[in-house]
Amino acid sequence: MKNTLKVLAVCLLTTVLVSCRKDIPSDKQGFIGDWKCLSCSFDEIKTLNIKSNGQGEYKSEEPGKTFNISGNVKFEGSNFRIGGAIIKKKFTTDKYPLKEIISLQPYKYKVTARFNGVDYEKIQ
Question: What average pLDDT does the segment 95-124 reach?
């Protein structure tokens, strides 16, 4: 009986988590991708991954301190959060993702943005 209740609880939790997930809105497609910190010091790493299926992951590592979170991405105006109802990380969009042309021949560009005062570049 206990095993049946455990299986039922896991199935219910999985259903709730999957049903909460929503694709990234069409006007926020520029946010999708893998981002790395540009303004971090040599001993600091910050990465952000936003997937088109509405899932995201954020990692921050600095000496003596590590923070990782993954979960649903929810946009609130121009800002967004990653995580669930209880544990989440909020991001303020200080600069929208912007394509910057590096050269025309050969054509090269980079995409940059600023979240929570930190400059990021999209990994191509």
Answer: 95
Closest to 28 (Cα-Cα) out of 116, 113, 110: 113
Range(s) of the domain holding residue 88: 23-122
Average pLDDT over residues 74-101: 95
* Domain annotation covers residue 17: no
Q: Is residue 74 part of a domain?
A: yes
Over residues 77-86, the mean pLDDT reads 93
Name the burial class of residue 45, with classes exposed (0-12), middle (13-18) and buried (19+) by CB atoms within 10 angstroms of its CB: middle
CA distance 61 to 12: 34
User: Tokens in use for 52?
Assistant: 């088109």
Identify whether the C-beta of residue 32 lies closer than 8 Å to the C-beta of residue 48. Answer: no
User: Among all chains, which residue has been given the structure tokens 């694709």?
Assistant: 23
| Spatial separation of the C-alpha atoms in residues 102 and 110, rounded to whole Å | 7
Reported pTM: 0.79
CATH of the domain at 104: 2.40.128
Residue 62 is encoded by which pair of tokens?
Answer: 């600095």
How many structural domains is the chain composed of? 1
